[in-house]
């Protein structure tokens, strides 16, 4: 197994090069081990993708690093902070893409952005934010009247409004048409170009191929692989000569995971 982890303690003084370090993370809910033993590091400025089957523990993991859940065991560091203890600071540093559908239907785009901006000490100017995500012309439109792609853009805007250094995007392009997906990918590349670290939970291997600098595969609550997309293809090629696309490589890799690890009960 290649978990490619790094030690925060090994970082030189000054600007950290590791944005997020997760070590042997475990999180249970009554009757379920959601995350059993997950470890990975995310470097400052990279796009890092979390992949894995439904129920593998990806959302639980990112909720632990965003400070929304408290781990049962293990260690999580976000720019040197513990999200479970330094919750307020971590919430200023990490933008978490909310499920947009929780917003009231009558709330206008601009009102939602202003509301979320009021939670942060140094928010981005609303006009610049809406321009960046391509919603300037829709700023007066009510949330309930937005298309699926526009809702997705708004949820990204709300994750960015606090000028975060890290953005966590969970299932970024689910439900978008091909054009909408490509334009959201372009948006992610623009955000990356500003130096923001991006953690992306995705089921779409074309998206991962296009955006990811590195990725982790989580299955059965454990990290099964950490590396670049090219390294995943190389690792899968050892197991199957038929491997071609990143999706082929991912599926080949998953096939080799011991199924007795799955379906964990607490
Ligand atoms: N609040 C909760 N209470 C009880 N069980 C939970 C809770 N949140 C998650 N789980 C369970 O923990 C496991 C991991 O869920 P999680 O949402 O982290 O997986 P995921 O990898 O994000 O899945 P998906 O790809 O389907 O979104 C699942 O079995 C899920 O049912």
Automatic annotation (TrEMBL):
Q: Does the keyword Transport apply?
A: yes
**Predominant localisation class:** membrane
Molecular function terms in GO for this entry? ATP binding; ATP hydrolysis activity
According to its record, how does it sit in the membrane? Answer: Peripheral membrane protein
Domain ABC transporter span(s) in chain numbering = 20-245
| Keyword ATP-binding included in the entry's annotation | yes
A cellular component term from Gene Ontology for this protein is: plasma membrane
Sorted alphabetically, the keyword list is: Antibiotic resistance, ATP-binding, Nucleotide-binding, Transport
The record, for SUPFAM superfamilies, names: P-loop containing nucleoside triphosphate hydrolases (SSF52540)
Which PROSITE patterns does this one have?
ABC_TRANSPORTER_1, ABC_TRANSPORTER_2
One GO-annotated biological process of the protein: response to antibiotic
**Pfam families cross-referenced by the UniProt entry:** ABC_tran (PF00005)
Q: Where in the cell is it found?
A: Cell membrane
Q: Which InterPro entries match?
A: AAA+_ATPase (IPR003593), ABC_transporter-like_ATP-bd (IPR003439), ABC_transporter-like_CS (IPR017871), ABC_transporter_ATP-binding (IPR050763), P-loop_NTPase (IPR027417)
* Protein name, as recorded: ABC transporter ATP-binding protein
Source organism: Microbacterium aurum
